[in-house]
Write a structure and sequence with these properties.
With 401 residues, the protein is of the alpha/beta class. The protein has 17 helices and eight strands. Among the domains are: 120 residues, no CATH class; 136 residues, Rossmann fold, CATH 3.40.50. The strands form two sheets. A four-stranded parallel β-sheet has the order 2-1-3-4. α7 packs parallel to α12. The relative contact order is 0.11.
Length: 401
Amino acid sequence: MLSTRGDGMAPRTLLIPSLLDDWFPLLQYAFASDRWTPVMLTEDGPHLAHLGLRYIHSDMCYPAHLVAGQVLAALGSGKYDTARCGVLIGQAGDECRGSCFIRLMRGVLDRAGYPQVALVSLNVRDIDRENGLAIRPSMVWQALAAAVWGDALAILRDQTRPFEAVPGSAEALWHQWMEDLGRDLQSGKFLSRRAILARCREMADSFCRLDTVEREVQTVAVVGEVYTRHCRLGNWDLKRYLAAEHVRVCAGGLTWQALYYMDSHALKGPAVQRIFYQAVRSYTAAVQRELVGILRGAGYMTLPPLPELKRQAEGYAPLNVTVADGWLVAAEVVGWAGQGVRKVLCIQPFACLPGHIFGKGQYAALQRKLPDIRLVSVDYDASTGEGSVQSRVRMLLDEKL
């Protein structure tokens, strides 16, 4: 139990669909309260998309089908008292499912026979205020620590895995750290800036001590839509596949996504709200800058800090485009190219209209402006075969540059 109610009643179960595999196991502690006990949903498999498609039209994007299917599978498993369940839905407040998905899920649950299941909106834009998860100051600090630690661990694991002498050792160390950091977050300890960064140094040191072997590997940057990039359910465990092919995966983390959001989305609204976001953005950017220094000092590759990344992207990325992932996709391509990464895998979910227009719409121009890199786009969808996706990935891996 992450929490207990003072009135003697057990808190209700808050089901959290897969979204950010390297961050939500830590972020869940920020969502715990005397009302809710978070539970991460981990079931995967192609059957989830087909279950979602029974209740959501095929015109909707692949992540919508997966999330709906995962939630419905959990509610139908018999593990939970559906009368005391809620489902956490993140709402960025931007286009497409970032604003409408919680309303879409209400219809799904009602039609599937779960009208009693609450939907809880996680957002900072006053979307569905009556169903919103109350954001407390302690939640902000826990979330910041979880984002920074999740970034560090994801980068350390992904770039160590292709060199590990003992298969699975990097993954095992990742799990060990997730348990240790979860206890930190649950207790509320080690959440000062100094303590957060000290933990990052300890993580880097522990991964550097893992037994590794020299072997020829490729380096591939992975960019694209946030769900598909960071959820193994949405990308069919792409990172594990690449590691098995001796690929060092370079990918941005949650702090880059959050800072992009604060830069382009959240700095709107009332003056008090803008001042708060500016303060959080400044603090997060300073912590991120130190994180980048720690990881690079340990021999790992990272994107530049978000403000520097944005400056580097001028002339390459349409910085006035802030729809969905907007200019961040192109900026990350530029950031990795600037560090010598020549192969870039751009992944998107099929039927994501903002992704197709503002993500894919930038690829051809980027390829012309950066002729020394090779950029390959991959779509994930319930109707796409695994062989089709892997053939496109192999096209990138097998090309000689």
